[in-house]
Amino acid sequence: MASTWAWGSPQVVDSSRHMRASTLSFAVVSLACCVGDRTPTNTDDPSNNPIFPGTVPIITVLPKNGCKVKLDTLRFSWDATGAALVYVGVFNAQIDVREGRIVNKAANVWAWHSGLGRGNEGNVQFSDGHSVSGGELDTTTKPTLNNREYYWAVWAWNGEGTRVTRSSAPASFTVAAVGGCPPPPPTGAVHVRGSEDASLAH
User: Considering the entire predicted model, what is its pTM?
Assistant: First the structure.
């Protein structure tokens, strides 16, 4: 078996050895690999589509898309997958995936994975992960993010670490001094263009 995961390569790895290493380098935790052989189930709304097309959707819970959150309360939660190999990435730009690979890997600024031994698959605190610098997990300093907008997603490999089989849709959040979410759109009211004119004619 190969000893590392190269960026985007579908190499077979000794996943149990590598994912359990607490000093696992970012290059070993590949941001992309060969995706599953499932038929894509994309919708017309890209915000509902898994980041890796053709994978089983992972439903994210927190932070909610478009919300502001204080760094000291930031946590990431999703419907747990039960997978042994799971990765959460925070990016300072929209996550750009092409042909099953994340091409703007330098935009990944924070990460958590299931080999770190902190947090639970499905629910991790920001402090459970590490900042990413130069493609490496920075395990020596406290992780931090600036007050700005970020994008995040979670994905999981099969048991052999050869394919991404599950992934979430990308979501955005903003680190800010005060947290909060925009109000939901109104429900039940449907505006039909021209209805005002029709009502005036009667």
Answer: 0.73
